[in-house]
């Protein structure tokens, strides 16, 4: 076990845990964002550099700080390590820089992008981005292409996190796409326009942090915040069969795997579940999917309301308001 | 009296061939080591010599050799980094082309020291014509019994293979080189966990050394580490190849004893022979395109007023504020008519082209800097561009997976630090700088040209 302090909060984690995962165990605002790291994909991480943190003390044995900011997703903790994330101005400045870099060639076409509302890059830009751009040059562009009959690739939106290539390597039996060219001309491609056709290829859509890989069966059907996500399952021979149905009325618009609060899928689903079963009757519906209150998707509040708690809350607010109008406020008008 | 270790036989006719090389005393170091020294003794001599990596970082070579994990039970590999692509550096090419047996001899010694039975020469793709030279040299050495199994009856076996790369600058970074050697895309690996000494080629312990570093080892074994350490100043021992280029009378590869004053190197007839056409010195890039550029006054003398020497320490004196680095020894001299902005744009264009695209700051930032510099150089710059450029460079530096990001950012930061007037001139007089030879037509008056900043 290793003792580690992140932003002044101490915790103990098993040896070999990365700083990012240690921070996730603590939870809250001190968790660094991650655009390329993905827990269930081996070797992912280290590329996007938004999770950079400062190590103020390398370990109990070596109390010196590390000379450079380190990628928290790939740096294992040491006993006695002291990490600064949101308490370090350097880290916040660096993160701002990385977000700016990620956005200079991004088309910012959120209004017509299917990922809008559940996009990691949107959230990240909202938290760390600038309101304006300092980039005046022309942006890099690519034509959208179909890779396989189910997936659309918008290379212009891609941030080259490499997650989809790891999905192909680790979940499917053959990787048919990869990164071509280099530098800012690097692109995800299928080389000789080979179609991606594999039972688990649909998971590339789920792991994509931006709208570069989208579900062709869902494209332009609905904004994600106008749909109702439901937890559901079915007996599937190929996968776990546990999914989220994104519905509108009785219609199932889209099927995805279940993501945790960091946007990561732990149980991947097969293409049959994802693309072939778009009837509610194919599924056993478990109930509404919990969506974080801060997500735009939660605007159509539909989760079962805890009436007791709500009553208490209203009561509390009334009491609070009363306290403000009576007594406490000397300027309040009294009869 | 200057001593030459690497280039002393370079002008002997036919030194490329085994017979001539052997007649000049070649392979005696291998005989000495394999017949009378243990691998530990060879490493000890190299440690004693104080030899530092000649590829750019200047890490102590002997110490690097001791990092190799020999107890893992996995095979150990030696990889010679001959992917010399740093703009302004052409010393390794010179060695490979003219005296290939020196490298092979050094590789035999290094392999013996670390216990490697397979060694690779990862050669830059553009060095196509050197490929047959190396292949022939290896075949000759094998025929003479210096390669193959049971070399000189010592029980030590070694095979050397030459692998031409695809000509990517990034493959000179050691982990990217290993990826490329494994047949993958040349993306640098994350450190941790992929330190080559523990998890290198095919996840086995691997030593990666520069051509010049390995070519120096035979001299160290022949003369002894202590004797070698006597050459040079302080922690910068031995001789170093300098690739001198730019506006000098005698460009070329020179072997210098470390500790030579920079002024002597530029102006003495033995070396560069002074600035061409009788012009004045404006700036020097002392160690290949990625190190900070220095103006004439700071390259000849340190900020404290001491003469600057060609050593790792003296060139780095003053940090990045007033110093630079010895790097790989690519010594680029610029005369007074040089446009720093144009030169910087050229460098940045190179880094933009060579960035692997794996991590965001380098992928996006190098392209951004190139575009801004292109704009300034072509008379479309705006006053805030200088600060923008500086800020972008700052946001790349130290945030990337491999040192390419730093290499792209340092020249930009240092050029703005020392030559702000050049940038301001470009923004103030856009119509004048549209002619690429603007400073030859009308020399730059070093003064502030913009009221802002």
Can you give a write-up of this model?
The complex is a heterodimer of chains A (335) and B (453). Chain A has 7 helices and 14 strands. By secondary structure, chain A is of the alpha+beta class. Chain A has 3 domains: 97 residues, Ubiquitin-like (UB roll) (Roll); 106 residues, Alpha-Beta Plaits (2-Layer Sandwich), CATH 3.30.70.20; 106 residues, no CATH class. In chain A, strands 2-1-5-3-4 form a 5-stranded mixed beta sheet, with helices on both faces. A 4-stranded antiparallel beta sheet of chain A has the order 13-12-11-14. Chain B folds into 3 domains: 213 residues, NADH-ubiquinone oxidoreductase 51kDa subunit (Rossmann fold, 3-Layer(aba) Sandwich); 102 residues, Roll (Ubiquitin-like (UB roll)), CATH 3.10.20.600; 102 residues, Up-down Bundle (de novo design (two linked rop proteins)). Chain B contains 21 helices and 11 strands. In chain B, the strands form 3 sheets. Chain B has a 5-stranded mixed beta sheet with strand order 8-7-11-9-10. In chain B, strands 3-2-1-4 form a 4-stranded parallel beta sheet, sandwiched between helices. The longest helix of chain B is centred in the last third of the chain and has 18 residues. Chains A and B meet through helix 2 of A and helix 15, helix 16 and helix 17 of B.
């Amino acid at each position: 076990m290793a003792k580690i302090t992140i932003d002044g909060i101490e915790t103990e984690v098993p040896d070999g845990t990365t700083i990012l995962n240690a921070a996730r165990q603590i939870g809250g605002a001190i968790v660094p964002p991650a655009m390329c790291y993905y827990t269930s994909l081996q070797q992912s991480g280290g590329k996007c550099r938004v999770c950079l943190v400062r190590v103020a003390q390398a370990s109990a044995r070596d109390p010196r700080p590390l000379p450079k900011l380190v990628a928290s997703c790939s740096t294992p903790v040491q006993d006695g390590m002291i990490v600064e994330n949101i308490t370090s101005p350097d880290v916040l400045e660096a993160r701002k820089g990385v977000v700016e870099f990620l956005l200079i060639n991004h088309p910012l076409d959120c209004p017509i992008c299917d990922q809008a509302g559940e996009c990691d890059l949107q959230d990240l830009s909202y938290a760390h981005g600038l309101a304006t751009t300092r980039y005046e040059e022309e942006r890099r562009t690519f034509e959208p292409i179909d890779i396989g009959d189910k997936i659309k690739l918008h290379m212009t939106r891609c941030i080259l996190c490499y997650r989809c290539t790891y999905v192909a390597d680790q979940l499917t039996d053959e990787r048919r796409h990869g990164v071509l060219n280099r530098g800012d001309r690097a692109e995800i491609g299928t080389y000789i326009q080979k179609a991606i056709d594999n039972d688990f290829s649909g998971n590339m859509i789920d792991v994509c942090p931006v709208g570069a890989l989208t579900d062709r069966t869902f494209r332009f059907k609905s904004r994600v915040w106008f749909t109702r996500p439901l937890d559901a399952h079915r007996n599937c021979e190929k996968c776990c069969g546990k999914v989220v149905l994104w519905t509108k009325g009785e219609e199932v618009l889209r099927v995805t795997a279940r993501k945790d609060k960091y946007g990561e899928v732990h149980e991947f689903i097969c293409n049959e579940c994802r693309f072939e079963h778009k009837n509610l009757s194919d599924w056993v519906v478990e109930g509404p999917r919990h969506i974080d209150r801060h997500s735009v998707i939660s605007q159509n509040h539909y989760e079962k309301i805890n009436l007791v708690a709500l009553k208490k809350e209203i009561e509390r607010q009334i009491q609070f308001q009363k306290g403000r109008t009576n007594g406490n406020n000397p300027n309040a008008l009294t009869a | 009296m200057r001593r030459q270790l690497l280039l002393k036989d370079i002008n002997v006719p036919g030194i490329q061939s085994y017979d001539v090389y052997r007649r000049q005393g070649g392979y005696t170091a291998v005989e000495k080591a394999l017949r009378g020294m243990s691998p530990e003794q060879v490493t000890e001599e190299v440690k004693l010599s104080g030899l530092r990596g000649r590829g750019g970082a200047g890490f102590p070579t002997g110490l690097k050799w001791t990092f190799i994990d020999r107890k893992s039970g996995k095979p150990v590999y030696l990889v010679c980094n001959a992917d010399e692509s740093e703009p302004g550096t052409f010393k390794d090419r010179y060695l490979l082309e003219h005296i290939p047996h020196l490298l092979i001899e050094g590789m035999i010694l290094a392999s013996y020291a670390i216990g490697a039975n397979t060694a690779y020469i990862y050669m830059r793709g553009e060095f196509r014509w050197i490929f047959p030279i190396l292949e022939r040299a290896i075949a000759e050495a094998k025929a003479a019994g210096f390669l193959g199994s049971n070399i000189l009856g010592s029980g030590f076996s070694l095979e050397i293979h030459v692998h031409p790369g695809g000509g990517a600058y990034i493959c000179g970074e050691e982990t990217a080189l290993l990826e490329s050697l494994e047949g993958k895309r040349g993306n640098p690996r994350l450190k941790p966990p992929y330190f080559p000494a523990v998890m290198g080629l095919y996840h086995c312990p691997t030593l990666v050394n520069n051509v010049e570093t390995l070519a120096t080892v035979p001299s160290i074994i022949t003369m002894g580490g202590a004797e070698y350490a006597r050459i040079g100043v302080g922690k910068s021992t031995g001789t170093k190849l300098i690739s001198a280029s730019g506006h000098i009378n005698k460009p070329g590869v020179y072997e210098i004893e470390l500790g030579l004053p920079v002024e002597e190197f530029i102006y003495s007839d033995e070396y560069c022979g002074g600035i061409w056409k009788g012009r004045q010195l404006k700036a020097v890039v002392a160690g290949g395109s990625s190190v900070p550029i220095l103006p004439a006054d700071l390259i000849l003398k340190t900020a404290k007023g001491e003469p600057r020497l060609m050593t790792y320490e003296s060139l780095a004196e003053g940090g990045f504020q007033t110093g630079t680095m010895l790097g790989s020894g690519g010594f680029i001299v610029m005369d007074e008519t040089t446009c720093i902005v144009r030169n910087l744009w050229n460098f940045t264009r190179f880094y933009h082209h060579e960035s692997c695209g794996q991590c965001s700051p380098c992928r996006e930032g190098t392209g951004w800097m190139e575009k801004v510099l292109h704009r300034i150089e072509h008379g479309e710059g705006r006053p805030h561009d200088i600060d923008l450029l500086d800020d972008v460079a700052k946001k790349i530096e130290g945030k990337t997976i491999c040192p390419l990001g730093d290499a792209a950012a340092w020249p930009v930061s240092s050029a703005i630090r020392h030559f702000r007037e050049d940038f301001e001139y470009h923004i103030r007089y856009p119509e004048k700088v549209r002619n690429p030879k603007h400073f030859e037509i009308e020399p730059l008056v070093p003064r502030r040209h913009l009221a802002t900043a």
